[in-house]
Amino acid sequence: MRLQLYILWCLLSICSLRSAFAQSRVWFDHPATQWEEALPIGNGHLGAMIYGGISNEEIQFNEETLWTDGPRNYNKKGASKYLQKIRELLDQGRQKEAESLAMQEFMGVKSESEDPTAWLNKIDKIRKQEHGPFEFAFDDSKWLLITVPHYEGWEIEGLEGLDGAVWFRYEFNLSKNDLAEHWSLDLNKIRTNDYTYINGELVGQSAGDETRRHYQIPMGLLREGRNSIAIQVINLEGKGGVAGYKDPKQAIGLKSNTGRFVSLKGKWRYHIQDQNSPKIGSYQASYQPFGSLKLQFDHDVAENYSRILDLDKGEVRVNYAFNGVNYRRTYFASHPNNFIAVRLQADQKNKVTFRLAMNTKHQRAKLHHMDGTSIRLEVWVKNGAMRGTAFLQLKLKGGAVSYEGDELVVQQADEAQIYLIAATNFKSYRELNEQYAATALERFKNLCTLDLDKLYQVHQKDYQRLYHRFSIDLGVSNQLDTIPTDRRLQRAAGHADPGLVALYMQFARYLQIAASREGSQPMNLQGIWNPFLEPSWGSKYTTNINLEMNYWPTEALNLSELQQPLFQMIQDLRLAGGQTAKEYYAARGWVLHHNTDIWRGTAPINNSNHGIWPTGGAWLVRHLWEHYQYTQDLRFLQQYYPIIKDATLFFKDFLVKDKTTGWWVSSPSNSPENGGLVKGPTMDHQIIRSLFAIFDQSSKLLGKDVQLRDSIMEMRDQIAPNQIGQHGQLQEWLTDLDDPENKHRHVSHLWGLFPGDEINTTHTPQLVEAAKRSLLLRGDEGTGWSLAWKINFWARLKDAQHAYHMVKMLLRPAGKGGGSYPNLFDAHPPFQIDGNFGGASGIMEMLLQSHINGIELLPALPVEMSTGKVKGLRTRGAFQVDMEWKDNQLLEVTVESLSGGELHLRYASREVKIKTKKGKSYAFDQELKLKK
User: Fold this and answer.
1) Distance from CA of residue 744 to its chain's centroid?
2) Is 173:226 a contact under the CB 8 Å cutoff?
3) Nearest to 841 by CA among 785, 879, 892, 897
4) Is 50 exceeded by the pLDDT of residue 8?
5) Measuring CA to CA, how many Å separate 502 from each of 119, 477, 820, 867?
6) Do 861 and 75 contact (CB within 8 A), yes or no?
7) What pLDDT score does 478 carry?
8) Per the omega criterion (within 30 degrees of 0), is the bond before 755 cis?
9) Is the pTM of this model over 0.90?
10) pLDDT averaged over the chain?
11) Can you tell me the distance from the alpha carbon of 307 to that of 17, in angstroms, rounded to the nearest whole number?
12) CA triplet 600, 528, 149: central angle to 5 degrees?
């Protein structure tokens, strides 16, 4: 009977892939071979990636508060003394001098560093010896092999956590005729310092990972036959190694004056000279991986394999058959009980046999056997204050378990269950909790007394409470739903697949539920999932678009409470940013520049040509206002009004009069990551106007600060306006400097089109045309999040087919440009989660807009999405919309009033306004006539 039930269970799982619900599943017919093929689970606090290996399974996991560094001061004392001089230099057109002064006196404070001089002198000695690894005939046969180049650092080649000095060697061959030519060596990027030798002679040395390594090779140095290249790479922080080019098709190598090329791409020998390098400070902290569970099975070839992320249930399942036995693994992350669960089952008794290990990439770690079925893993983050502890419990039905070294060995069980929790000593951005491990242990013990079936039911109820609020059907094809997701992505590059578009929206909602829950940290650049000790951009919070994009669709896709982590961060940033406002600008209120981290750094970082951008906080305030717009919750507005007011006060003090025009302008600043340090970037002025309008409306609603409100609105009218430039474009800067050939990923000066609303088809048709011209000049190509942003732009411009074209570009398989990885993660590349949410937001904007003149239905509906239905869309004004359409025509729409406000509904040329009662629903036909 048990076997029959199991077979029925598996058949139902397979059949469900062919149903309409398949647009709620991401699935594969093979295990993951790389991280971007693994499937994510999460509960806001813990995240894990499931590879689904047959003989070797890996579950790589993160805990949201495990970061580098620790609580500290980020602000340079007295930086405001240099503000006026920087402004004067910008006024005089002396940008490079302004950037140089700002770099020296106006950047944030790095974390603690040690003097590297003695260490570098020790490392240098090997190069001064008569014999060494730079020699032509040096014996490197015992050195290990590594793939070169490695653009994302030697970390991706297995040298995780390595800072120090490493030697690389490689051999290449030349002919006698080759020696008659002049040769140069092109290595492009090295992270970060190098000493490069050809046949034992130094041909070049450079510092910095932005310096291109292009070295001339002296005539007579190269030999007929075998030649050698040796490179000493010194890297004290961040990613290291011989990076080469971002485009893997562009090789490193030797180039001759006649155009001949000798590639140096391949397996090089390497030797770690010294990895005990001094501590080097960083501007901000990086999000860290915690560890991995490794499971080994005596299974090699599987039949009927499937690996499924079930968005409807919030779980991952792996099914396969081996030697006549059907196996199932189920993985989920419970928010109510804050743990990760793994269940391993078979349809025959005594068939669950495996080995289990828990490990970590952190250099300092301890593994403890707590008892016969429990493991504790402790990790210490390198050069930081953070510690973490993970606890694992193994429960069996039948069979036996024993230890072999650090591994738990399970023999002949009927079923195995794994409970995993993790915690750190993080308490708040200002303090640590050194008693955290005892608290976590007590919670772990209590958890282990609970039945997994009941825990699963609690998880399902909690998850589906959120997920089932919204549904979308875009005419899904059962035939396409049977295609594994990776192959479906490849197919969609050349064929319409509206079901995949619907799946993408639901996948974004799943990711948000998995990564942003009440009481958690907000989603960072990678949400909650990161496998690297040196993640790209620190996997932190980039606030000049990326953090905000993470939460663009949250309200509309009916997940309003999942913004709570962001709102808590904004409260923290108000306090931290208040100190930055004083030290850097001698201003009231609070400020945030273009990045922050778990310790809430708010000062400028990285480089003065892009790190001095003071409008991050003002942009975040818009999320507070949007929440009010969608909920009409005056108590919320009352709670956050002081934050809105303080952000406004900062810009009242910060703005300066432009001597030429008399306009109020933002200085110093930049148009994010484009054009260097300037005064008066268009984006800043759009954001500040939005902030001032939010303050005006909030203060009126709450009956506060009349005098301040009047002065703010007077200032607002004098802020530098949007301008149309010589190419018909919306100007990016105060002066008409836009380069029509610039294809930069940021399109920051269109912020007023989206997510702002001051540029719109109703009130500013000329600016709409200028924005469209800017988009066309900038081009469609971009990073993943840039493609996603452009979907929103074209939807707001009501250009349905161009918006859909951008959707297709976002859904193309990841290559050297933006797109999607096989598991639907957004590809910058590398992985950044913001594009997933920006894409979902853009698709929603194609179906419904509510930013101007009420609610507009199907404002940018492409022919590829001509038939569909959606339920549970939220709008500004606090309404919930269900609608259905066919052949690009609305069939019916039902609107529920959540606050009792006036409903203003528009579709094509039709329009209706009615008063509503809270909690009542109103049904309309295709003519927007109210149904009886």
Assistant:
1) 19
2) yes
3) 785
4) no
5) 56, 12, 15, 12
6) no
7) 58
8) yes
9) yes
10) 95
11) 12
12) 95
